[in-house]
Amino acid sequence: MRVPLSWLREFTPVEAGADELARRLPIAGLQVEEVIRSGAGIEGVVVGRVLDIEEIPGATKIIWVTVDVGEGSPRGIACGARNFAKGDLVPVALPGARLPGGMEIGRREMYGRTSDGMLCSAKELAIADDHSGIFVLPDDSNLGDLKVGQDVREALALDDDILDIDITPNRPDLLSIIGIAREVAALYELPLKIPEPAPREDGPAASDLASVKIEDAKGCPRYLARIITGVRPGESPWWMRRRLLACGMRPISGPVDVTNFVLLERGHPLHAFDLARLRGRAIVVRRPRKGEERFITLDGVERALTKDDVAICDSQGPVAIAGIMGGAGSEVGEETTEILLESAYFAPERIGRTARRLGLRTEASVRFERGADPEAVPAAAARAAELLGEVSGGTVARGAIDVYPRPVKVKPIRLRVARTNALLGVAIPAEEMASDLSSLGSRIDAQTRTVLRVSPPTFRPDLRAEVDLVEEVARRYSYDRIPLTLPSSGRAGGLTREQNLRRIVRRLLLASGLSEAHTLSMLPPRLPDRLSLSADHPWRRGLVIANPLSEEESVLRPSLLPGLLLAAGKNVARRNTSVGLFEIGTAFLPSGSDLPDEPMRAAWVLTGPATTGWHGPHRDFDFYDAKGVLERIVEGLGVPGVMFEAAGVSPMHPGRCARVLVDGREAGLIAEIHPRAARALDLPSRVAVGEIDLAPVIAAARDAAPGELPRFPAVVRDLALLVPEATASADVERAIREAAGSLLEDITIFDVYRGQGVEDPGTLSLAFSLSFRDPERTLTDAEIGERMAAIEQTARAKGWTVR
Amino acid sequence: MGVERIAMRAFGITDMRQLFDNDVRFLARFAG
Questions:
Q1: Nearest residue to A125 via CA among A65, A55, A69, A46
Q2: What is the DSSP string of A51-90?
Q3: B chain contacts of residue A574, beta-carbon cutoff 8 Å
Q4: CB neighbours (10 Å) of residue B32?
Q5: Contact by Cβ (8 Å): A199, A386
Q6: Which helix (H) or strand (E) holds A731?
Q7: Helix, strand or coil, per DSSP, at residue A616
Q8: Which of A201, A380, A739, A747 is least buried, going by the fewest C-beta atoms within 10 A?
């Protein structure tokens, strides 16, 4: 929207210049794209009267013009255009003149004569884009004191600053000078004066001269017509054309310019029909009927109408596409004497749909589809009638034909003062909010200290809910005055203890050299068969999805291990021989109720070479690597009392499988899988795996509390026991701990021996290192002897031999 | 948009399936 400041100041007495407005308006939410300085750059161009036009012998395109520029003797100027006549007023750039864009004019020798300056086009003066000929100035009658020799900037009132403002689609009301003036007046706390239009009415009533009927009240809630008779043809006065040009519109004729002028001034689109060409002198607003699909708009293009459009018809058929463009058949022209002036309100969505379908965007359609003001209809028509009376010399018929079957209602909005202040982070009292909103056109229906009831103006279709009013208050308060604060929710963010420890587990596993995998939560249903699992195996009790995307992903995993094993198999198939993967995620276990148990677990799988390089013997991952990973987790988290117990669980290797106990309860498993199962999954024969429930591990984790270092020495004793071969070292260890009591600080198995001295093939020698300590004193030999004796007694009771 | 597509942009991944393929060569690129 281009806003000439001279026009803006007609409605509000703002003193600020273009630059200041360009700075302040964005704070109120109006983005100023550009400040255009009309008239700037024109120097030394004066009004001249054409005295004579003659051909130059030998020249085909150029003519010789003699002009009076008020200097006593006329000047001779060569000119390439012929669109003017003797007696016309033209802009003359005298030698030394400057034009916008920096062009300088000098004397030129042509055909043996000296051309004493240049006649200018509208484009050369940056008034309009027209470069087809010389800009013939309006004659004296239109311009009062226009004088030959006068500077054109003064004569044409060209000096003006124009703000080019970028209007967002939610604010159709700002597509007008008055709309912008309302914002400026509110911003500077100045009065807004909108003169009440007063057309000089005479003669018969409008309703005696024409009729209006609405048959499509949904598409057209309001239609008002005014009639002007005795219209003279001709162009509009310069002051009007200058404003149209400044706003980027092309002047066409008196009546059309008047409707465009009102459109710019008030934002309400109007249309002028030649009343004599409306059959039946009637307007009927309705949907197009069968056989009325072909319609020629006033740009001469044939358009296809549909039943969804709103058509303005006369008694026979369509004469305009409502809210978009008039028809060629009823256009106002040179011979027009009677005008029916349309001022209407159309349904935004209907106009929008038709405009989009036809690919026809006009000044009118843009405003109607964004939402015009139904209450602005009478004043816009009255203003246009008033101007038509002045400009085209017509007689305005008395009154208007106003058909408004369903008055548009505005829904009041409750604005809570505290809510507004909370949202904005400010403390604006209710009275200030009320005056802010009324300065922008809202009506305050009721007001207390805590709540306002507000009826937004009909020209603000964007104000629908409380938040919209909050935004208005914020705009008036000025965004730059709203303090910056960090949002304080009262709660600082952070990870829960569980999330934190889960992250530590992830880092420990990564630090163990494993890669984190993400496998699908769904498994192929045939996997248990491939692993030859028994009919009651837990891995067969995975929950089946009712509508799986694919059969291969139809069972929720009862353990993370199958997915990891499949991933390992895929890697081996791609010759990624050394594979160490882990995953942290949930398993899904039937719970007996509607929803499954979803324990959070960590699982890992290791296969292939555990070592690379030249140092040390080659070694493949095995059971102890899987166990090492588990120990890394429990030691890293500080989980005390983790025990292992031998287990025989398919598809694991019977001799290389242990249950993990945390606080005496089963929490996981470490194993090598059975070579048969490994083969079934195309894996090498040695695949070490582990899986653990994180909830018990996390529950048992000690928060770091280093405390004091022990001040008294430990006493170390070794103990070797002969045990049956099938005995689990973990069982022996547990028996020793129980017998040793609280003084035993640490126990480590350091030797497993069979050979000389231990010849019985069913027997193994296990050697333990025991460390005793009392935090309060030094232990005596006698006390240790007593403990060792108790341990040996327990061992013998279990059938083990002390070596 | 899912987190996978953001990851694809961030890491220059051309095939989303790689994110769930668990190829150790792919995973190793995220080391460090």
A1: A46
A2: EEEEEPTT-SS-EEEEEE-SSSS-EEEEES-----TT-EE
A3: 23
A4: 5
A5: yes
A6: helix A729-740
A7: coil
A8: A747
**Measured between alpha carbons, how far is residue A206 from residues A212, A254, A330, A386, A464 in Å?**
10, 21, 19, 15, 37
Structure tokens belonging to residue A31: 């983005």
Buried b / exposed e across A304-316, counting CB within 10 Å, b at 16+? Answer: ebeeebbbbbbee
Contact state of A567 with B27 under an 8 Å Cβ cutoff: no
| Amino acid, single-letter form, for residue A247 | C
Hey, are the CB atoms on B27 and A517 less than 8 Å from each other?
yes
A-B contacts (CB, under 8 Å): 31
Quote the CA–CA distance of A452 and A46 in Å, as a whole number.
59
Instruction: Say yes or no to pLDDT of A138 above 80.
Output: no
User: In angstroms, what CA-CA distances link A560 with A389, A577, B10?
Assistant: 87, 21, 28
CB pair distance less than 8 Å for B22 and A576: no
- Which tokens in the block code for residue A371? 């939402």
Q: Are A305 and A298 in contact (CB under 8 A)?
A: no
Percent with pLDDT over 70 in chain A: 98
Query: What are the tens digits of pLDDT across the range A357-411?
Result: 999 999 999 999 999 999 999 999 999 999 999 888 889 999 999 999 888 888 9
Alpha-carbon distance A266 to A177, whole Å?
7
Contact A225, A210 (CB under 8 A): yes
Interface residue A306 vs chain B (CB under 8 A): no
Q: Hey, which residues does A659 pair with through a beta bridge?
A: A645, A669
Residue B27 distance to chain A (closest CA, Å): 6
CB atoms within 10 A of CB A53: 16
Residue A732 CA to residue A722 CA, distance in Å, equals 11
Region of A407 on the Ramachandran plot (φ > 0 left; ψ -120 to 50 alpha; else beta)? beta
ipTM greater than 0.95, yes or no? Answer: no
Q: Which of B22, B23, B25, B27 to mutate to test the interface with A (most CBs of A within 10 A)?
A: B22
Q: Is 70 exceeded by the pLDDT of residue A141?
A: no
The helix (H) or strand (E) run that includes residue A748 is: strand A744-753
Calculate the average pLDDT of chain A: 90
- Cis peptide bond upstream of A713, omega within 30: no
Write out the two tokens for B28: 């190793």
Q: Model's pTM, two decimal places?
A: 0.61
Comparing alpha-carbon positions, the chain B residue that sits nearest to A583 is B22
Give the integer Cα–Cα distance in Å for A690 and A624. Answer: 10
Residue A139, pLDDT score: 66
- CB contact under 8 Å between B19 and A518, yes or no, is yes
Residue A511, helix vs strand vs coil: helix
Q: What is the pLDDT of residues A675-724, one digit of tens each?
A: 999 999 999 999 999 999 999 999 998 866 656 677 888 899 999 999 99
Ranges of H-type helices in A251-347: 254-266
3-state helix, strand, coil in chain B (%, to 5): 55, 0, 45
pLDDT of residue A623: 95
User: Cβ contacts (< 8 Å) between A581 and chain B: which residues?
Assistant: 22, 24, 27
Of residues B19, B20, B25, nearest to A576 (C-beta): B25
Contact B20 A581 (CB under 8 A): no
End-to-end Cα spacing for chain A: 103
Contacts of A640-648 with CB under 8 Å at 24 or more apart are A640/A700, A640/A702, A641/A700, A643/A730, A643/A734, A644/A670, A644/A728, A644/A730, A645/A728, A645/A730, A645/A731, A646/A728, A646/A730, A646/A731, A647/A671
Instruction: Give yes or no for a contact between A341 and A395, defined as CB atoms under 8 angstroms apart.
Output: no
Which residue is closest to B32 within chain A, CA to CA? A510
The neighbour count for residue A235, using CB atoms within 10 Å, is 17
Out of B19, B20, B23, name the one closest to residue A571 (CB): B23
